[in-house]
């Protein structure tokens, strides 16, 4: 089983920024934990981060036929990108949306997601554990 | 570590109802899986379901001093109960909100949760796996 | 044919209260008229009133396999109860929503019903005749 | 007792159209059932259909002094005609609003009625039975 | 100078209806007063009432080249007719909107007019005096 | 008969400002026309302008027992002053609201008036003729 | 192939009115261009204009079995007529909505169409070319 | 004079929870102060707390004929319970709504009360003094 | 302890106006009752009324260092004055907002207060008793 | 005449995706049809697709002086890109907006276009025929 | 060149109040800095502060012919005064709106300005530097 | 002191476009003026323009540790980019938002900024002077 892990804008800054919201881990730390879990549950990962909406759209398009599922933290694009939504609709690969912080206890505009309605489901608020839990439920979903 | 698992109205009907939205498992099936996971990760569970808002409020109040965390699927009360929100605020016990279905791909009124902003986070859309993932992230959160 | 008749909060006060809105009949008077019509059209009735949302949810759940239809005046719960809506969805027993008063000539918040969209239809404004007409159309619907 | 039965736009197409929403009966079929019930309960009917808003306004105006009640299915005009509302207000003849389909489980704009607040009440969702139930409750209302 | 006086739906019922809102005068009474004023200020009137939106649209269209101004009480169509608005825009004949009652102390939906923004101005609340004042200001406007 | 004529903020600038919206007359010019009409119809006028909301409130309060009617152009206060509304409610002297320009063809916020619902009616769009027409309908109203 | 071309209110005034919005052509000019194109692509046309909503509803109803497609410029009715929408739904004849002007650069209320969601598609802004393009795409659609 | 004091959900947790919002007193402390004041002003009290909406509805219904007034802190039910509103309407016993915290400086959803419009008035923000002041104004109201 | 009592616009008209909403007492009557209570609880009062927003702002500014608390009935300014809100914020003197009538059973625009969120709390609906209760809770607050 | 044809995000996936909404043609198929039409009407085309908003902005900027018109299917950017709108405004080259699907029968958020108000017009719903019709009307517009 | 500097309500309290929002400078301190800059750039200043809306309106009116520009910090009146907006429109003197604090990171109601749309531009958030920058850009604007 | 100057999409077109809104200067002209001022006040500048949202996000991220402040004209991204907002939050470098035109006198959607609430402040409407004033206030802010 192959899973594509996508990270949206500013996630490359993790650890360097608002620690109370996002935790002290860097994206590299999270990636290590993710890979360790992937090894345990025998899943192959490709991990990718970009500040470009189009990079994420391209990656989602390329997942068609190459990946069994997508784990995506769209970050700021959650609330603004119809293009990412349409890409997920186009490839129809099972997708899970995750967030480090609890978006529902933040600004009003972060409560709306263009992405969630076209995903299997959403996980938010558990910092790095959002990734780990997301990987587990996604791989379980694909197995069924 | 002791975790209180709370289930809101109509969840006792699981398996007997809308299978495409909620899956074919009964609540008992889910409970068995939850307990099995709890054994593995060495957590004690108390599981409770009620159609009464006040039962859930009472249980949350009683968790103060007796439980280390709450895993709650408030079902219909997600969208209507300020009383449950206030109970969680009052006891200040770490709480995770879960849903079987992806509420963001259903009716507009199901997109708003009174509960989520006072929880650590929210997990929705993964059927029984929402419970299992919820238990994992909650116990991890408490450990840290 | 067996029909479950459900009455929501404060309907036990009928006759003692706002007569211009609800008429001078008590709930007992209405029940007598309902039973008399039920005898005529050869339908068995169980009639129930409660001020508790959970009682109504429980009754609706129990109707599964035991009743052919539900006639419900949800009263105040019309505008606030997602739990009753979900219970009707869960049992999928044909249901008719009735109101004594014309909710559309009252306060704005009474114009919205969580229940109506999951019912066969709605009847409002005809005082006790809302019940009698509701029983007739419900039994006709079941026959077809 | 004389009752005016009014049918709004496109109801002349009944039976030829969306059968799942409106049933397979034609307007003639419904009229026959209505007349049969009218005979039984000794009520005189005049039945009228038009695609013109002004025809319905004229008919309502003419009801003053000539009819004891109005049974109206305003169809599309329900949501757009202040003129019909004002006509009912002007003649002050007891009026019942009916609909074949359950407007509350259809498009958002069909949830609002300009007509309902100036009627005794509203019945919707029971196909031809909406007419029959409407005739019964209207005649009962007039008798009282 | 020739002025076209247009009256919308249900105004033919004046005097027979809600006297507190519209006064006890009939449309004929108002017309007599209007004609008397017209004679005094040497203006020729054509007065027309219809319950049909299209009649009013037709009349407005015909005013082009035949009338110097339009005095219109659109009644219910005030709030629903884009067609009348477009007709006034098309002929570009100076138009004054009048109402018998004070629409701003009635239902919310009567506060919005599709017609007012394409008129010189609006007069409301003075019963028959709305017509007389309207005729005066319209003829003054045309003279200037 | 004594009429109080009140002018709100910036009306002292008339003639010096946006001529296309308000005409080229100064407030003095309008006052002269108003007085001339008042002489003709045998009405006594007191005319007052202020940029202060409280001056207008004071004047309205003093009208109680001293004036038979109020003709008010609240200008900017139309859209912001609950105090003027409450003063009119308190003295209960018949009041007519007038505007030089057609407020319904200007900015959205000018479409709402706190004053209109507590007046007999409103006249807008006819420049100085709004005042003259207002005086006529107000005195007629008081006579009846 | 037979196509019904329907024109809504005030389109008979074309050429006589707002030339910057609608162009200098009259409806007759447009009809000639349409017929010329129809001859070229071997389509039979019936062209009809009315200021009456009910005329358009009647024509749409009559199209059932008599026409293969409808090309409609509903003009003002675009924004107000549920009756035309329901008629199109009832006959289920392929329909294309066209507008001379770009409704999206005009008043806010012109951005909403009751008709568009029940059509194949919409074309707006190209003056007479909206008709010609509409005829082409409609006939192509029917052929496929 | 007999007064019924009602406390809604989570008020049994007072003193154990968010001290900055609600003060450090327990509900028992407040009750003692209330009873002391009641003795002073010679009023009989019955005090009741419940987390159940239906308990509060039942108590309000029972007040009819047994109590002269109701002092209610509906807590979370303030914002969600039409049933409590309807119960107060049904018994028509003078009622005062009180809150410990200033609801207008908290979350937006706490600014709306279903209960306030059917009460004599509302007091909020003064912690235990809200109860004492409420008892005083209620008994004064009943005396007059 | 020194308390500043502020009364907003039109409160000087009390007793002369809408008796059902505000009671038959004049402001002088209320002031006498207030002073009598102030004597009893040993508080010094300065009482001030103005129809001018700026007078109230000035008084609030002057309270800094001169008064221990402010009791304010902002009347119409409740809903429109950010300046009074900012003045209270600037001096940071404990303030209580009071109203004679129950603003929540009146027009929609009276449900919103710019002042309440920057006060300790709000009391409304108890006529003169709103003042007396307000004085009590304010002085208690200051003592603590 | 030179026309720039721009395609927004995910249109490179055409044919591989939701066939009921977008048809079975690939973008290459559409391009072939477009070029064939371009040859017929003697127009030169440059066709470009990108998932990057900035690519489309760059291309629009470069069109200044190099192209006579733009045919754009902004896809997801229709609803989110002010940058594309501003680019069109900046170059002021005649532009036509097209869509494969009928955006007005899809999700609410697809009903709003940032692009349409700055274009000549919009065509939607006709699959590949939207492109062909768009090319025709655009070239006709440029010729005039 | 002569510039009128206007300060709205509560700005006389600067330095005595919320230092984190407005800085520790008093209005006198700011005025000194302003005058110093004015000397440098050879501009004559008149500086004025008032808590009265009408004072500001009067000053703006007097600026006509006497001042070349207005620098205004309307403070609380920013969000509530149509009168000040209308005064600026009436005199048509170039005006710059300034704020000490960043209004866009404060309460929602502070995000809307009645004044900004009739000014050259707006500067907010830079404490006393908002004044200095405002004076510079205003004088530059006038020079051009 | 080092300042990063960022320019959003289409600003490279300055001077070539809508001159009434943006002035006749090109971005190069503005840059020259900015550098001249920077020399005077001894500040080092890096100036950057891009039509890509991600370029701006990258540049903001790189500013961490390399620049003392950011001067940004986000242009169209002001209203659509949560990613830029999040980048500013992540680096927490003092930022000033500037606009050439007065966004508050343009389309409604330009009144909302995602960027302003995370900046020190905002300057708009003064064409190139917005940049110069922005540089001054930013450097002053950093010095303090």
Annotation keywords:
homododecamer; 144 residues; alpha/beta; Rossmann fold
CATH class type of chain A: Alpha Beta
CATH architecture of chain A: 3-Layer(aba) Sandwich
Write the element-wise H/E pattern of chain A from the N-terminal end onward.
EHHEHEHEEH
What is the tally of helical segments of chain A?
5
Structural class of chain A: alpha/beta
Quaternary structure: homododecamer
Shape of chain A: globular
The overall average pLDDT of chain A, rounded, is 95
Question: Which regions of chain A contain 5 or more consecutive residues with pLDDT less than 50?
Answer: none
Largest sheet of chain A: 5 strands, parallel
CATH superfamily of chain A: Dehydroquinase, class II
How much of the sequence of chain A is in beta strands? Answer: 15-25%
* CATH fold descriptor of chain A: Rossmann fold
Strand order of the largest sheet of chain A: 2-1-3-4-5
Number of domains of chain A: 1
Instruction: Write down how many β-strands of chain A occur, each being a DSSP E stretch of 2 or more residues.
Output: 5
How much helicity do the residues of chain A have?
A: 25-40%
Radius of gyration of chain A: 14 Å
Distance between the termini of chain A: 13 Å
Would you give an account of this structure?
The structure is a homododecamer. With about 140 residues, the first copy, chain A, is α/β, with parallel strands linked by helices. Chain A has a single domain (about 1-144), classed as Rossmann fold, CATH 3.40.50.9100. Helices cover about 40% and strands about 20% of the residues of chain A. Chain A contains five helices and five strands. Chain A has helices at about 20, 25-40, 55-60, 80-90, 130-144; strands at about 1-5, 45-50, 70-75, 95-100, 120-125. In chain A, strands 2-1-3-4-5 form a five-stranded parallel β-sheet, with helices on both faces. The model of chain A has no long low-confidence stretch (mean pLDDT about 95). Chains A and B meet through strand 5 and helix 5 of A and strand 5 and helix 5 of B. Strand 5 of chain G pairs antiparallel with strand 5 of chain J, so a sheet runs across the interface.
